Each structure stands twice: as structure tokens, then as C-alpha cells.
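C-alpha cells incoming
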């Protein structure tokens, strides 16, 4: 009777294990497809599906993990039964290997999804930084253009001021030249009208030159005498 009861328990556990294995196998296929086709966060609004696949992925991961735990418990229960022959022992070993393969596939898919998610997050942050840099660069460029435009206007204003000063100076010099010409013309008229005065001025200039010459000779002679006396 104990043997018959163990056989019944063994068959029941095998059926449960096979049912869970089939269910886990189907879910792992869908789980792998979702992990591959999950849309990145930085995708455009038109390309993101209506259903949040990341949320579905996490829910399915929790569900598969629960099924794997149940299958592990069933395998443990099967291991508690004393094997009745090599076939039964081989079946137990086969169920343990299937559980191990399922866990490896599940962990691989979940790790690939986590790595892809981290990569997409990193790319999204990089793109945001690039967009921010481009935006800031555009603002800086506009500021540079505005400053350059301001410098150009200031330079034009300074040049116009310098040109106005030059024009005024030229006009002032022309006015002075005309005034000097008028004064010279008047002196010439006076000289022509009063020849005696002109002659007197000429004699005064000649005497001034003669006095300057005599004074120069006298100073030179005195200097010579002083030098001669000093050295002898």
C-alpha cells in the first residue's frame, strides 16, 4: 500500500511538473520577445505602443519567477520519494536539469533587458545633454551676434564722430587761412600806400641785422679772449 501510495504521489508530481514546465516554456518565449522589443524611453510619442511593455515585462518576470519557485518545490517533493529504479532516478534528474535551464534562460533574458534599459537610459541622458548643449550654444551664439552688432554700431558712431571733428577742423583751418590772407593783403595795401613807412621798416630791419651781427662778433671776440686768458 505504501508503494502504491508513493507511485500515485510520484505520478501526480510528474503531471504537475510537466504542466508547470509547459507553462513556463511558453511564458519564457513571450518573455524573451518582450525583452527584445521593449521600446526605449527616449523614443518619440508616435513610436511608443499604447501598452507599457516595460510594465508588462516586470509583471511577467514576477509571474515566471513564481512558477519557477513552484517547480522547484515540486522537484524537491519528487526528490523526497525513494526512486524505484533507474528510470525514475533519470526522470528526477531530467526535471532538475529542465528547471536549471529555465532559470538560466530567465536570468539571461532579465539581465539582457536590464542592460538594454541602462543603455537606453544612458543614451537618453546623453541626447538630453547634447540637446541642452546645442540650445545653450545657440543662445550663446545669438548673444555673441548681438554683442558683435553692438560693437559695430559703436564703431560706426565713433567713426562718424571722428569724421565730423575732422570736417570741422578743416573748415576752421580754411577760415584761418582766409583771415591770414586778408591780413597780408591789408599789409601790402598799407605798404603800397605809404612807401616811406615801407622804406623805414626796411632800414629798421637792416639796422637790426647789422646790430645783431656786431653783437655776435663782439661776443665771439670776448669769448676768444676769455679762452685765451684761461689757457695761458
Amino acid at each position: 500500500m505504501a508503494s502504491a501510495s508513493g507511485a500515485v504521489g510520484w505520478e501526480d508530481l510528474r503531471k504537475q511538473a510537466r504542466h508547470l514546465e509547459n507553462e513556463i516554456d511558453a511564458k519564457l518565449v513571450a518573455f524573451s520577445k518582450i525583452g527584445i522589443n521593449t521600446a526605449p524611453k527616449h523614443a518619440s510619442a508616435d513610436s511608443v505602443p499604447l501598452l507599457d511593455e516595460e510594465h508588462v515585462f516586470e509583471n511577467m518576470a514576477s509571474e515566471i519567477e513564481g512558477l519557477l519557485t513552484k517547480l522547484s518545490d515540486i522537484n524537491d517533493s519528487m526528490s523526497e520519494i525513494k526512486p524505484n529504479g533507474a528510470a525514475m532516478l533519470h526522470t528526477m534528474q531530467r526535471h532538475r536539469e529542465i528547471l536549471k535551464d529555465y532559470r538560466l534562460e530567465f536570468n539571461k533574458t532579465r539581465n539582457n533587458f536590464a542592460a538594454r534599459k541602462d543603455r537606453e537610459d544612458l543614451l537618453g541622458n546623453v541626447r538630453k545633454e547634447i540637446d541642452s548643449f546645442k540650445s545653450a550654444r545657440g543662445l550663446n551664439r545669438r548673444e555673441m551676434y548681438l554683442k558683435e552688432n553692438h560693437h559695430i554700431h559703436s564703431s560706426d558712431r565713433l567713426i562718424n564722430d571722428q569724421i565730423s571733428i575732422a570736417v570741422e577742423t578743416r573748415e576752421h583751418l580754411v577760415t584761418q587761412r582766409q583771415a591770414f590772407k586778408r591780413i597780408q593783403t591789408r599789409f601790402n595795401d598799407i605798404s603800397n600806400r605809404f612807401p616811406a613807412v615801407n622804406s623805414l621798416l626796411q632800414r629798421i630791419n637792416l639796422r637790426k641785422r647789422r646790430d645783431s651781427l656786431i653783437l655776435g662778433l663782439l661776443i665771439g671776440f670776448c669769448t676768444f679772449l676769455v679762452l685765451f686768458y684761461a689757457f695761458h
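note: The chain is about 90% helix and 0% strand.
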